[in-house]
Amino acid sequence: MALMAMKKSAMLKSLNGGLKMAATRAFSSLSVGSDLLSSAPDVSLQKARSWDEGVSSKFSTTPLHDIFKGKKVVIFGLPGAYTGVCSSQHVPSYKNNIDKFKAKGIDSVICVSVNDPYVLNGWAEKLDAKDAVEFYGDFDASFHKSLDLTVDLSGALLGTRSHRWSAYVDDGNVKVLNVEEVPSEFKVSGGDHLLAQI
């Protein structure tokens, strides 16, 4: 029992240390003033959907241009569907503020995660959030890698994932950007925080 507790403690220290180290590096591909479309060229995302919808659409993807060009978009990234804080606080903080975002002229609120679109679809339905938030899968982390927003969460058996982050993007241009330093501390990437910055 003591050995298990020591291993768990060591894993958490290692995980937190790795997260802090990764988070303190420069996020050179994305910053306030960046053109998101140029920062992630040739990247497409997969809109959350059922398997049957995927088959009928021939597993289509959505180019970033279609998501951001000529639109005011709030986007937030998180480590994964069905994870604790993401389910209990992160997505609900956007869902519960959707009317306030719309009142500020936001065209869409988007959640993107390193998951396949089918898992995201099930999760969005479980959270009853599909009517408020659009969910997109970044199945191979190519979007987050392009933006230097990945973190190695192998210690939690998740592999390469996204930092928790949020941004307000106007016509592809990043106007506000928040990146969590330690994903276990839900602070700056929530809906309330971003809403106050727009």
UniProtKB/TrEMBL annotation:
InterPro entries: PRX5-like, Redoxin, Thioredoxin-like_sf, Thioredoxin_domain. One of its GO terms (biological process) is hydrogen peroxide catabolic process. Its EC number is 1.11.1.25. Its main location: mitochondrion. Belongs to the peroxiredoxin family. Prx5 subfamily. Thiol-specific peroxidase that catalyzes the reduction of hydrogen peroxide and organic hydroperoxides to water and alcohols, respectively. Plays a role in cell protection against oxidative stress by detoxifying peroxides. Reduces preferentially hydrogen peroxide rather than alkyl peroxides. May be involved in mitochondrial redox homeostasis. This is Glutaredoxin-dependent peroxiredoxin. It comes from Saponaria officinalis (Common soapwort).
